[in-house]
Amino acid sequence: MDQRMTAGYAPTAPAARMENHGPTMARIALRTGQDLLARAGSMVAYEGYVQYESNPSAVGRAVAGRLTGESVPLMRCHGDGQLYLADYGAHVLCLPLNGENVSVNATNVLALDAHLEWGVQRVKGIAKFAGQGLFNMGISGDGWVAITSRGTPVVVDCGRSGGETYVDPDALVAWSTGLEVRGKRSFKASSLIGRGSGEAYQLGFSGQGFVIVQPSEDSTERLSGAQN
Q1: Is residue 132 pLDDT above 90, yes or no?
Q2: Domain with 108 in it: what CATH number?
Q3: Alpha helical stretches, state H, 29-144
């Protein structure tokens, strides 16, 4: 094989603990003592010495997740090598947390550093909208998180925009938990905004932080993924 034809797809030396290899794959540099929690079944390749096992410490939180509809099956990965993760061609974002808190739809979680704090949390300030429950997966601390998006996402800096940012809840992926969140119903625009049973639902975000939105409003995919 002429290696010049495949040179652009070969991995490069890692520059960070977690980074993208193309838009739809995450590459994690595993080191001894730096375990990772990853979505079960998301491993597509690895180099070096990498082991996988179930995550017993997550059993209680997984039970809580099943009760709220926001659960995610996680496996613990450890060793010394390069680990590649993907989720059926979804776009992947690798986010460094510096003592920050984020709220993520459980079905959009691909991986996170095992030392981060995480668990199912109630989303305050909103009612239960179509396709969007009252609970999400809260992640906090210093470390890395990889999340997925069905298509190229948009990341909105709410502090820079000044006013409120409104999002269709079925397209919402994640947001900074320091943001103020409120629900909004609209009857006049029901045929133009959102998808559902005749009402238009939006979530309004304001304050300092970011919101990640995917170009997909398929709530059935999210609900079915949360129930697996």
Answers
A1: no
A2: 3.60.160.10
A3: 59-68
